[in-house]
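Sample intake sheet
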Amino acid sequence: MSQAPPPHSLSAADAVLAIEEIKRVFAARLRCMDTKQWHEYAPLHTDDVVSETWGGLPEDKQPRTGDTANRVVGKEKLAETIRALLDGPVCVTTAHHGHTPEIELTSDTTARGIWAMEDMLWWRDGDAELHLHGYGHYHEEYRKEDGRWLISYRKLTRLRVDSSPGFFRFMKAL
């Protein structure tokens, strides 16, 4: 029985290289977020990136695009929104991990992937340290533009969140 041809015309070597480049842009995004290198964060995304990663936040704190909650559109707006959450008046220390990527090339210049994720967040409220420890998956899409693979879509789904009571009280609406 023959296999269906791949949805791209890349050689096997070029397909592997594309997947490795996607892994690198994903890893750089997590590093830049955790180290708060916002000048490097936005350029890892397409101009029209859509992020739906805010569903775990209380509804009154989720960012909105128009009438749609849990959505940010545009790389500068995305970087600004994440910066406001993690590096605003209250600095939140974070550690994000992405594991076991399932990446599929959907054309020569597009791909999609699912990553198991774990995130840990800490902030101080007076003498108390509050924390959040989450588990879930990033569902992403990628697009190659000007020779670089970039993130064009992201959705976070969570399986579990363990947090201190009142963890989100430091937040203002995004």
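Comment: The radius of gyration is 17 Å. The chain has a mean pLDDT of 91.
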